[in-house]
Amino acid sequence: MSRKDPPGRQQPSSRRIDWKRLGVWVGSMAAVAGLTAVVLTGVDAADGSRPEAPEGTETVPVDDPIHVPGGVDYPVVPPAGGEHDPTPLACGFYDFIVPDENVVHSMEHGVVWVTYQPGVSEEELDILRDIGDARETIVSLLPDQGSAIIGTAWAAQIRLDSATDPRLEQFVNAFRDAPSSPEPLAGCAGGAVPSRP
Question: Is the peptide bond before 166 cis (omega within 30 degrees of 0)?
């Protein structure tokens, strides 16, 4: 007596697994994932490490990253972390002053903020525009900050005399999407775009 399978039930397949094809596919996906991690985190592909912070980088004590309404009185100019606005600032180059509270939220997400005083040279402005056009960076004007150029990341800062100083690029590469920020890789996509005052 033959047994009939219920309707809709499939007979077991006799197909074999192509282990070679599966291995190539898994290897390809691992390579893509590794490359994505390098691109997103700035990790040096040669040895898997992050670039070191340049000489002159200072650690800045900051308060907890809490969302607060309204303005915040920061103890350091420019601020390097702490309480901040619920909305991050969109990355980019701004030739005007931007709201500290929004930028601090972006830095919580692993963004590096570069500020400059009025009077920098055209060569330096070109460098600063290039930095502002790069991923996960904000560049803005900030008069009376005490140094011509300041690079700021969450709880870290470097003060420089010129944007031509190679330590500026090294600072950006060391701290962009760094695990030292509370929410690295969150970025500034969808952030607020400030209007010129």
Answer: no
Question: Is 192 contained in some domain?
Answer: no
Residues 103 and 89 sit within 8 Å (Cβ to Cβ): yes
- pTM for the model stands at 0.77
- pLDDT tens-digit series, residues 44-100: 435 567 889 999 999 999 999 999 988 999 999 999 999 999 999 999 999 999 999
Burial class (CB in 10 A: 0-12, 13-18, 19+), 128: buried
Of 85, 147, 91, 93, nearest to 120 by C-alpha is 147
The verdict on residue 97 lying in a domain is yes
> Is there a single domain that holds both residue 37 and residue 106?
no
Q: Domains in the chain: how many in total?
A: 2
